[in-house]
Each structure stands twice: as C-alpha cells, then as structure tokens.
Amino acid sequence: MSRSPFLLACLLCAAASGLTVPAAPAFPAPPADHAAALAGLRDPDAAKRADAIAWIANHGSMADAELLHERLRDADPVVRSYAETGLWALWSRSGDAKVDAFMVRGVDEMNGGRLAEAAASFSEAIRVKPEFAEAWNKRATAYFLMREYRKSIADCAEVLKRNPKHFGALSGLGQIYLALDDPEQARQWFRRALEVNPNMPTVEYNIKALEEVLQKRRGRMI
Length: 222
What we know:
By secondary structure, the chain is an all-alpha fold. 66% of the residues lie in helices and 0% in strands. It has 11 helices and no strands.
C-alpha cells in the first residue's frame, strides 16, 4: 500500500565420544564498505550478491535503490528476494528520529486495529517530513483498511510522486480499484506493479483473474 542480513555458518557440536568436529563451511565475508557492496552486486557468486544487498539495506540510502531494482531481475531467486526486502528497508528509513517514532507508533496502532489513530500518527510523520514517501504509503494503507478509498488513492499518488517505482503503492492501487469494483483500473495498476517487480505471484494471479472477469463482461455486452 520485509531475512537474515548475512548468511551464518552452522557449527556442529562434538559428541561426548570425542568425534572430530568437521570444519565449518566457508561463507563469503560481508562487504567492508559501500564501494565493496556496490562491486558485490555484480559478483558471479549469488551469495556475495545477497550479502551486498544486505549491506546496502542496512547502511545504504535511497540513492542506492535503483541498484536494488536491478537485482529484482537477478537469475537467483534468493537474491531477488533479498532485493525486494532491501528496497523496503531503504524506503522505511526516514533519517529523522522523530519521524521514525511516529512511524513505529502508527504501525503498532494499525496492527492493533486502531486505524484512525494510526492515520493520525502517519499524518504527524508527513507533517514533519512530507518528502518521506513511506509515511504517505502507510497512511494510504490505514485509509484502505478504513475503506476510505479516495483518501487512500490520493495518498498513493503522493507516494508515486516521490518514489515512482514503489511497487507496494502500485499494487495497493490495484487493491483499491478492486474494492471499488473497477477491474480495468485494477488490472492496469497491477500490471504497472509487476513491470517494476516481477516477483509478485499474487499480483500476477490477480491480473489473470481480472482478465477473465473483463472478458466475461465484454461477452455480456455483445
């Protein structure tokens, strides 16, 4: 409308009989810095690419987002999954402790079903930092759950002004238009979401289902 940052080695415990402990498998070391992470994104080793994504998710900025978008089309499914999670991590980082506090409070309220309170908390985050796209996205989600669909659409538009490749907002618009019984608009937004992030099986399913609905409607109109 988010895996473990780095692969961990699993060590075997020695039995009481004194069996020799096998050597732990060798895993790639995480990138040392931003430059190493950028280089790692194009390493032939999928594990190194995944570790590079994790480093950027933890330490990078929105300036790195386009590089993670590229990894959404990686040949390795784990790397693709890391890239999606990494993008959510970048999007969720406001850089302002006060905004982050409003966001945490709003998410807690939304998870607790206190939707009006959640929308108010996200509104405070927007007031403090209106350029922060994820605050708009979270408020759009709260409005959607409140069935305030027009407000949710307006907030999704604000998200996309600031982050045009926000596949959460794109697919969220598809969900809103589904709720409004507008299958053509829903299909268009789902298609846009899938163009940005091809790793969304639910969105892909929704597109196919909507195409069947639209075909039947056209058949009744003939």
